[in-house]
Design brief:
Number of strands: 18
Helix content: 25-40%
Number of helices: 11
Largest sheet: 7 strands, mixed
CATH superfamily of the domain at 234-367: Glutaredoxin
Shape: elongated
Amino acid sequence: MRKVFGILILGLLSLNTYSQYPFTINLKTKTLSGRMVYFNIMNNDDFIPVRRDSARIENGQYKLTGEMNQMSSIVEFSIKGNGRYNQIRFVVDSGQNNLNVELVDEQYRMLRLTSDAKGCQIYDEMIDIFDSKANSHRVDGRYQLPAGLTTEILWDQLRALKKYPDDYGSLLYLYAIGRTDYSVNIAKGILETFDLYRPALKNSALGKKLYQDKADLISSTLGAKIGAPVRIFNVNDIDDKPFTNASLEGQNYLIVFSATWCLPCQLQLPKLKEIYQDYRDKGLKVIYFNNDADVQRWKKHVATNNLTWVNVSERMKPAVSKIQKSFGVFAIPTCLLVNKDGMIVYNSDQMDAGLDQLDAYVKKVFLQ
């Protein structure tokens, strides 16, 4: 099975690699002899390489051996040319993996890979599905997909993965879909496909993580829908003093998830400040989350922008926030309005990304 890949193909996949499952990669090539090649085995917890190997291809072949803690993993293969790295990702299974890699077009950084590994063949099929619908929307090497097409592709891939309930490579790509889409509908589709897998896959470390992540996403997102009671959380403010939204019982308040590095967040900041100024004397409170671990940058941001509302942060790296995820928020900025009865009456992520209706909703809660 042959594939032509660019570096922008879908996929942030990886797997922890410690010692359990030995693997061997036997690489052959006609176009890469004499060139340095690089192998990065990725970690699926934080998407960084946990093992790096490099070598110069001699006589058109190279052999790499090692161990993984699961039956399959993702490896990133790359070469350097014209000051750039040409990259391709593929699945490596435990045992023998016979690969052929060729440089198709160095100008456009295209590599072609052939593998006899079952996990890689499943991965190839998923890329085929992507290519069949996305390639016509590629301009100057970049995908410009119309609204809804990405979701359509993911549903096609989920249906295709149901054909492989016994293969770890199928679980691996299912996990990848879960990392690229955080909607409730896709999460439900992932769990529907996952339910068909054999017990050994469900009970694997990756299987358990996938199930828990998607179950939590569905639960938290539904819990932050309009009409749901607000979740109680505890966090420290900018002075490192404890704060809980339980202290605002009986009051109208906004919960804003933001970050100093987030440009859309900064673009919305003037509108939020204006609304706060208009309704502060009527009792409106704002809890403004900073989703970042850089405390000094956060404090400077608060001072520079004269943010006089309640400024809080879990002081964690982006995408690690437990409170943000507990509200089903996986992208920022997101703004929630809670009324004096403790009910969520507005969720920008679900209805009003530009905050165009926020003023009207705030006005309404103070009229009730």
